[in-house]
Amino acid sequence: MITIYDVILRPIVTEKAVGKKESESALCFQVHRDANKIQIKSAVEKLFQVKVADVRTSIFEGKLRRRGRYSGYRSDWKKAYVRLKAGEKMPEYVES
């Protein structure tokens, strides 16, 4: 059985993500690669007790990384931008 903690792996706290949080009322998360938009929406609503308006996702391929003569790829990962409905209080996970 998949839980909300399996869907949402971690919040992404970058300059771009914090800017979207302030200007567009959108949260940014790294999510499980196989999670769909419906699962992401329900996980955010249950975890933060907010109403979600829209979910946008994008998949990133792992980069090639080298250590001397050894090389390998990082894992592929998925990012989700979750926009909250108007009037919803923004959770403050960044400061804690």
Instruction: Give the structural class.
Output: alpha+beta
| Total domain count | 1
CATH level-two architecture: 2-Layer Sandwich
**Shape field:** globular
Distance between the termini: 29 Å
Strand tally is: 6
- CATH evolutionary superfamily: RRM (RNA recognition motif) domain
Low-pLDDT windows of residues: none
What name does CATH use for the topology? Alpha-Beta Plaits
What's the number of helices?
Answer: 3
Radius of gyration: 15 Å
Under the CATH scheme, which class? Alpha Beta
**Average pLDDT across residues?**
92
Strand order of the largest sheet: 1-2-6-3
Instruction: Note the main sheet.
Output: 4 strands, antiparallel
Which sequence of SSEs, written as H and E, runs from N to C?
HEHEHEEEE
Task: Provide the β-strand percentage band.
Answer: 35-45%
Fraction of residues in helix: 25-40%
Helix and strand topology:
Layout: H1 4-7, E1 8-11, H2 15-24, E2 26-31, H3 37-48, E3 52-60, E4 64-67, E5 70-73, E6 77-84
Antiparallel strand pairs: 1-2, 2-6, 3-6, 4-5
Defining traits:
single chain; 96 residues; two-stranded antiparallel sheet; 3 helices; 36% strand
